[in-house]
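Please describe our next protein:
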Amino acid sequence: MVAITLTEKLIEGGKCLIEELDTSGIKVNGALWIFFQEEGFWKLMLSFPDVDKSGPKSAYSKVQKALSKLTKKDGLSLDDIAIAKSSSPLLHLLKKVVHTGTGISGIRFSNNVVNGQLIADAYIYRLI
Protein backbone atom coordinates (compact mmCIF):
# COMPACT_ATOMS: atom_id res chain seq x y z
CA MET A 1 0.00 0.00 0.00
CA VAL A 2 1.40 3.36 -1.01
CA ALA A 3 0.32 6.13 1.35
CA ILE A 4 -1.77 8.95 -0.08
CA THR A 5 -1.98 10.76 3.27
CA LEU A 6 0.77 10.81 5.86
CA THR A 7 -1.02 9.67 9.00
CA GLU A 8 0.18 9.51 12.60
CA LYS A 9 0.10 5.72 12.24
CA LEU A 10 2.58 5.88 9.34
CA ILE A 11 4.78 8.40 11.16
CA GLU A 12 4.89 6.12 14.21
CA GLY A 13 5.45 3.06 12.00
CA GLY A 14 8.42 4.76 10.34
CA LYS A 15 9.89 5.58 13.73
CA CYS A 16 9.44 1.96 14.89
CA LEU A 17 11.14 0.68 11.73
CA ILE A 18 14.15 2.97 12.24
CA GLU A 19 14.39 1.89 15.88
CA GLU A 20 14.33 -1.76 14.80
CA LEU A 21 17.05 -1.15 12.19
CA ASP A 22 19.15 0.67 14.82
CA THR A 23 18.64 -2.18 17.31
CA SER A 24 19.73 -4.66 14.63
CA GLY A 25 22.97 -2.73 14.14
CA ILE A 26 22.03 -1.45 10.68
CA LYS A 27 23.26 2.09 10.19
CA VAL A 28 20.62 4.42 8.76
CA ASN A 29 22.04 7.76 7.67
CA GLY A 30 18.89 9.07 6.03
CA ALA A 31 15.25 8.44 6.92
CA LEU A 32 12.28 10.55 5.91
CA TRP A 33 8.80 10.43 4.52
CA ILE A 34 8.74 12.32 1.23
CA PHE A 35 5.67 13.37 -0.73
CA PHE A 36 5.89 12.79 -4.47
CA GLN A 37 3.60 15.60 -5.58
CA GLU A 38 3.15 14.62 -9.23
CA GLU A 39 2.29 11.03 -8.33
CA GLY A 40 0.31 12.04 -5.24
CA PHE A 41 1.77 9.61 -2.70
CA TRP A 42 4.22 9.34 0.21
CA LYS A 43 7.23 7.02 0.45
CA LEU A 44 9.50 6.32 3.40
CA MET A 45 12.95 7.00 1.95
CA LEU A 46 15.78 5.19 3.72
CA SER A 47 19.48 5.56 3.05
CA PHE A 48 22.24 3.25 4.25
CA PRO A 49 25.96 3.97 3.87
CA ASP A 50 26.63 0.54 2.31
CA VAL A 51 23.99 0.77 -0.47
CA ASP A 52 26.65 1.92 -2.95
CA LYS A 53 28.70 -1.23 -2.29
CA SER A 54 26.13 -3.95 -1.59
CA GLY A 55 23.30 -2.59 -3.74
CA PRO A 56 19.62 -1.88 -3.10
CA LYS A 57 18.59 -5.55 -3.07
CA SER A 58 20.60 -6.14 0.10
CA ALA A 59 19.12 -2.99 1.67
CA TYR A 60 15.57 -4.06 0.86
CA SER A 61 16.32 -7.46 2.39
CA LYS A 62 17.45 -5.80 5.64
CA VAL A 63 14.33 -3.62 5.68
CA GLN A 64 12.07 -6.61 5.05
CA LYS A 65 13.67 -8.48 7.94
CA ALA A 66 13.14 -5.47 10.24
CA LEU A 67 9.54 -5.08 9.02
CA SER A 68 8.84 -8.71 9.88
CA LYS A 69 9.69 -7.93 13.52
CA LEU A 70 7.14 -5.12 13.70
CA THR A 71 3.49 -5.69 14.43
CA LYS A 72 0.78 -5.28 11.80
CA LYS A 73 -0.49 -2.24 13.69
CA ASP A 74 2.60 -0.33 12.56
CA GLY A 75 0.96 -0.30 9.13
CA LEU A 76 4.08 -0.41 6.97
CA SER A 77 4.89 -2.67 4.06
CA LEU A 78 7.83 -2.88 1.70
CA ASP A 79 5.70 -1.02 -0.87
CA ASP A 80 5.92 2.06 1.35
CA ILE A 81 9.75 2.05 1.30
CA ALA A 82 12.20 3.57 -1.17
CA ILE A 83 15.93 2.90 -0.78
CA ALA A 84 18.24 5.75 -1.76
CA LYS A 85 21.98 6.05 -2.08
CA SER A 86 23.67 8.38 0.38
CA SER A 87 24.59 10.52 -2.63
CA SER A 88 20.94 10.89 -3.72
CA PRO A 89 20.35 14.43 -5.02
CA LEU A 90 17.27 14.84 -2.79
CA LEU A 91 19.13 13.75 0.36
CA HIS A 92 22.12 15.90 -0.59
CA LEU A 93 19.80 18.88 -1.01
CA LEU A 94 18.01 18.35 2.30
CA LYS A 95 21.26 17.81 4.21
CA LYS A 96 22.23 21.36 3.26
CA VAL A 97 19.43 22.76 5.42
CA VAL A 98 18.50 20.04 7.94
CA HIS A 99 20.88 18.26 10.32
CA THR A 100 19.42 15.87 12.86
CA GLY A 101 22.30 13.93 14.36
CA THR A 102 22.05 10.20 15.02
CA GLY A 103 18.82 10.23 17.02
CA ILE A 104 15.29 10.08 15.66
CA SER A 105 13.77 13.50 15.06
CA GLY A 106 10.35 14.54 13.88
CA ILE A 107 10.77 17.53 11.59
CA ARG A 108 7.99 18.54 9.22
CA PHE A 109 9.49 20.28 6.20
CA SER A 110 6.73 21.65 3.95
CA ASN A 111 6.55 24.01 1.00
CA ASN A 112 10.21 24.96 1.04
CA VAL A 113 12.55 25.78 -1.80
CA VAL A 114 16.18 24.71 -1.47
CA ASN A 115 18.58 25.81 -4.21
CA GLY A 116 15.63 26.36 -6.54
CA GLN A 117 14.14 22.90 -5.86
CA LEU A 118 10.65 22.74 -4.34
CA ILE A 119 10.24 20.30 -1.47
CA ALA A 120 6.45 19.99 -1.36
CA ASP A 121 6.32 18.03 1.90
CA ALA A 122 8.58 15.83 3.98
CA TYR A 123 8.72 14.41 7.47
CA ILE A 124 12.35 13.96 8.50
CA TYR A 125 13.53 11.46 11.09
CA ARG A 126 17.25 11.47 10.42
CA LEU A 127 19.73 13.14 8.08
CA ILE A 128 23.41 12.63 8.88
Remarks:
- Residues 8-127 form one domain.
- The CA atoms of residues 38 and 120 lie 10 Å apart.
- The longest strand covers residues 117-127.
